[in-house]
Write a structure and sequence with these properties.
Blueprint (H helix, E strand, L loop, with lengths): L12 E3 L5 E3 L8 E6 L6 H12 L1 H6 L2 E7 L3 H11 L4 E4 L4 H5 L3 E6 L2 E6 L2 E5 L5 E5 L7 H13 L1
């Protein structure tokens, strides 16, 4: 089920690359949050997307907005990926796929006539009150971080 603009964002607690728990609810009333879901650490498109977001982390911070990348990779893979690519933002590990399902990004694709499930590259902009302001499914990673930054700035103006 796809989430829609105006709905409350599902809250969750997931471990980051350092195995510290990040609880989405703890940011309610304090910060805007951008969640970007991606398929896998280290693949070319996912790497570009994560490093682009990371490169603009300061700009997001100025907008009172936190960034979290989420994939089904485990904490150790996230730590290797982060360190290898110099990614500053937090990468959260959803190994069970629970949060991917809550956000509707765990989707079936036809691959050689077979249904194969995977993470659809998707981004959610959640305001301080925990409401989804943008639900962007199946995004193209090119220029995506700057598009999202523009949407956050509009939300703040």
């Amino acid at each position: 089920m796809l989430l829609k603009v105006g709905e409350k964002a599902p809250t969750f607690a997931l471990p980051d690359a350092d195995m510290e728990t990040v609880d989405l609810a703890s940011y309610l009333g304090k910060k805007h949050v951008v969640l970007f879901f991606y398929a896998k650490d280290g693949t070319p498109c996912c790497t570009k997307e994560a490093t682009d977001f990371s490169d603009h982390e300061e700009d997001f911070n100025e907008q009172d907005c936190l960034l979290f990348g989420i994939s089904r990779d485990d904490c150790l893979k996230h730590a290797e990926f982060r360190d290898k690519e110099g990614i500053g933002l937090e990468l959260l590990s959803d190994t069970e796929g629970t949060v991917c399902k809550q956000y509707g990004v765990w989707q079936a694709k036809e691959v050689d006539g077979h249904k194969k499930f995977g993470v659809a590259r998707s981004t959610f902009i959640i305001d301080r009150s925990g409401v989804i302001r943008h639900a962007l499914y199946n995004v193209n990673y090119k220029g995506h971080a700057l598009d999202v930054l523009r949407l956050v700035k509009e939300m703040n103006s």
